[in-house]
Amino acid sequence: MSVAEISGGVVLRRALRRQRGRVLLGIALLCTHQATEALVPVAIGVVIDRAVATGDVRALVLSLAGLAALFTVLALAYRTGARMAYAAVEHEAHATRVEIARSALDPRGHHSGMRDGELLSVTASDAELSALVVRVAGLTAAAFTAIVVAAVALLVVDVPLGLGVLLGVPLLVLALQRMAPLLTRRSSSQQEALAATTALAVDLVTGLRVLRGIGAQDHAARRYAGASRHALDVTLRAATTKGLHLGLTTMVNGLFLATVAGVAGWLALQGRLTIGELVAVVGLAQFIAEPVQTLGYCVQLFAMARASAGRVARVLGAAPVLAPGDAGPPAPTPSRLTLDGVGHAGLDSVNLHVRAGEILGVLAYDPSDAEALVAVLAGRVPQPERRGTLYVDGVSAEELHIDALRAVVLVEQHDVALFEGSLRANLSAGAQVDDTVLRAAVRAAAAEDVLAAHPHGFDRQLTERGANLSGGQRQRIGLARALVADPPVLVLHNPTTAVDAVTEGLLADGLASARGADTHGTVLITTSPALLRVTHRVVVLDRGRVIAEGPHEQLLASDARYREEILR
Hints:
Blueprint: H1 8-18, H2 20-52, H3 57-105, H4 116-130, H5 132-157, H6 159-177, H7 180-206, H8 208-213, H9 217-269, H10 275-316, E1 335-344, E2 347-355, E3 358-364, H11 367-377, E4 387-392, E5 395-396, H12 402-408, E6 409-412, E7 421-422, H13 423-428, H14 435-444, H15 448-452, E8 461-462, H16 471-485, E9 489-493, H17 501-514, E10 521-525, H18 529-533, E11 537-542, E12 545-550, H19 552-558, H20 560-567
Parallel strand pairs: 3-10, 3-11, 6-9, 9-10
Antiparallel strand pairs: 1-2, 1-4, 4-5, 7-8, 11-12
Helix pairs in contact: 1-10, 2-3, 2-5, 2-10, 3-4, 3-5, 4-7, 4-10, 5-6, 5-10, 6-9, 6-10, 7-9, 7-10, 9-10, 14-16, 14-17
């Protein structure tokens, strides 16, 4: 299914199709439950007329045995049917959450327009709510079954009374359905407001240390309070609409019940109904109130499911940012990485190449040029937004599958992303790696103090985003992780911005040693003199263009601006 085909309606229909086994079995059992429950007042009426009124003990015993069997079927059908219905909801919610996670983790990226917090809200809330459509299917079928069985029983007792029920109930349902669009709009607004508040909370928690550092925590708190107040207002409006709908359903249901009971009483006074039939009719009229109420509830559930399905479809139907090729990893060549006339953002016709066995330094006078270069090398820039060509081992990056491109080129940014779990798991990224390899990478990244500072060593537990490490420690662990991966081409962007000068020197030497293989290519995008010292060549960017190139010591001696930039 292409992304263009995914809509809220598709999400709902697909849920019913994927869970059709559980849904159909649940519907069959819930319909059985409602049918047997509708027959209870009929059975009681028959007992009164044929056993109680006649004083027939044998008939009374048989009737009680029949009622016991009826209640047994009723209870078992509901218990099993409800279990199947809830299982269908949870299985579908799980399947949807997995799909959303897969879409969010797609290396091609997606134009969903949602922030991280909004994606979290869709995954945690909308996936569950959209799955409610399978419950709606079961409840709706069961409610209509109950109404049909009750109407047929009333037709047997009195044809005009049965016809009144058969015609009246659909009219009531159609009248209540008129509020469904409003319920959907209010539910959608509520989910969007809650998602925006969640996204803001994620942003604030992520940047909490920065906010405290600049003294902006009070402003951030007020901003969140405003967003939360808006979410509260929207939620209250949605609750008001739901309450109005429920109130109207209850009122109309009560009036309908009173009408049926009143007509039945009048017929009994006219002698057209026996006592048992009157009891059956009143019981059926009371029973009908439940399925009518259920249908009103289903309108609300469906409105919420449809609103959330639209948000799920927005994620699953988002077009990918990149449209990579399908070629596998290319064979290694003497020129591992080449930029030919590349332009993006501030970059203007940049030409550079990284040879096998070379450590190339890149010094950008404008940090935005460095960011643009990192984006290009990471394969995050779609072809329409970029000029020129990026070659990996002589093959255009557009021809390579995204996995093949990233199997050759690994970009480690200075804003390191660590995950909750052990230090070992963060370094190995889920692969089976020998401790000897891990220690060598940690040593090369000058991060041995991170191991020595904790008795559990590699089994040390990191909190979310590695918050229990300092900024410098996070950077060095991120670098060690990149060295463990040992990619053919490694691109590092300002890997030492949070470390002291002594550690930076050790790290530079360790990096040069670790990346010294003849087949490796390494790009250091940095202003650090310690790192530039270990490079073979340095390319200088100014206003998006290459303005100088040569060994670090040569540029340091001959270019005053270069010297000023790295020594300040």
